[in-house]
Structure formats: C-alpha cells, structure tokens
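Is this the right way to post structure tokens for a design question? Let me know if I should format differently. Anyway, here goes:
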C-alpha cells in the first residue's frame, strides 16, 4: 500500500469523524482540503490568466491590455486611504460589469429561452399523427405540463398590485390561481433537484466505502 493511498484513507476517516461532532481531526482535514484547493486555483489563475495577460501587456502594449492591469492595481490599493477613492472606480466597474452579465444572462439565457421553448411546444391536435390519439400521447401531456408550469411560475413572481376597475377581483383570482400552480411546480422541481443532489452524494459515499473496502481487502 503506497503512502498516497494511506494518506487518502486517513483523510477520509478524518472527514467522517464529523459524524461524532466537531473535532480537531475534522478541522485539520478541512483546512488541508481548503488550502490545497485554494493553492491549486491560485496556480491555475497565475499560469493561465495572470501571467499570459502580463506577457501580452509587456510584448504588445495596448489599451485593451493596460486598462485591466491598471484597474487591478487600483483595486489592490484599497488599504491605503489616499488611493481608496480611486480603488472605488475599479470596484464600481467590477460590480457594474458583473451585474450586467448576470442580468443579461438571466434575461436572455434563462427567461427568454424558456419563453421561446414553451412557445414552440404544440398543443394543437392537428399537429399530431392521425393514427395516434393526441390525448394518449406522452409528448402531448409533457408539453401541457411544461406550458402550465411556465405560466404558473411566471405568475407566482408577479408583483401584487391592486388596480381599480370592474375586473379587479377577476384579475386577482386569476393571479392567485396560477400563483398556486406555480408554487406547486416549483416545489416539485426543487424536490426533484434535492433528491438528485442527495442521490449523487450517496453515490459518492458508496464509491468511497467500496474504495476503502478494496484497499483494506475486506470484500
């Protein structure tokens, strides 16, 4: 048995010791895991992002390469009070770009894509094969469930305003009904995601137990 295998087995038992409560063995293994991951990410960031960017800036200086370096330098100058207002420029630029990417990704990558995918589904009986009754087709019911779930989820996140007029109560009842449908759809979806995550964790646990049984020749 190699030293690497023994170390991996010891760290595994140290992590599992958390079942008995918080203890120094678990904390040591946790610090080793976090430190190793942070060091690995730092080396990758330096070798694949920072150093190539610095090399490009030195070899071919241009605003596209010098400006990011200047913003990073200003961001690193936050501890000094005299340079702190200039560091806020880099921070504002970072937050602004990050917010724009997040909003754009959510709008065009998730919301609009979901709307287009739902609109492309067919619930028209004329689009189905004559030899196949559309009411007995699994695809029809799947499309119907997707359409109902999408509409209900959108209605659940509708702002609750109270407009006037004769249709006020009708609109409130419509939103209340579809909000309930959307709530149940989200509960089912989150439950399925949680079950999938739990099954993946159990799969990792079973694989680790089988590995330990194999190295100790207990199976």
């Amino acid at each position: 048995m190699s030293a690497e295998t023994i170390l991996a087995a010891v760290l595994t038992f140290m992590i599992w010791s958390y079942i008995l409560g918080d203890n120094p063995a678990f904390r040591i293994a946790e610090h080793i895991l976090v430190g190793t991951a942070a060091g690995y990410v730092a080396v990758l960031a330096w070798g694949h992002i920072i150093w190539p960017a610095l090399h490009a800036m030195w070899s071919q200086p241009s605003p596209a390469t010098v400006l990011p370096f200047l913003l990073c330098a200003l961001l690193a100058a936050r501890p000094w009070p005299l340079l702190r207002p200039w560091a806020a420029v880099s921070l504002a630029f970072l937050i602004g770009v990050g917010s724009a990417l997040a909003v754009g990704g959510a709008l065009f990558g998730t919301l609009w894509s979901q709307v287009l995918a739902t609109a492309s589904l067919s619930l028209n009986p004329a689009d189905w094969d004559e030899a196949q009754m559309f009411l007995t087709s699994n695809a029809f019911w799947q499309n119907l469930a997707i359409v109902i779930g999408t509409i209900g989820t959108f209605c659940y996140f509708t702002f609750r305003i109270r407009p006037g007029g004769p249709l006020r109560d009708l609109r409130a009842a419509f939103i209340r009904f579809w909000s309930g449908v959307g709530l149940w759809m989200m509960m089912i979806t989150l439950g399925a995601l949680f079950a999938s995550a739990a099954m993946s964790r159990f799969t990792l646990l079973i694989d680790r137990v089988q590995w330990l049984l194999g190295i100790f020749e207990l199976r």
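Format looks fine. Someone answered above. Worth noting: Residues 130-219 form one domain. The first helix runs from residue 3 to 16.
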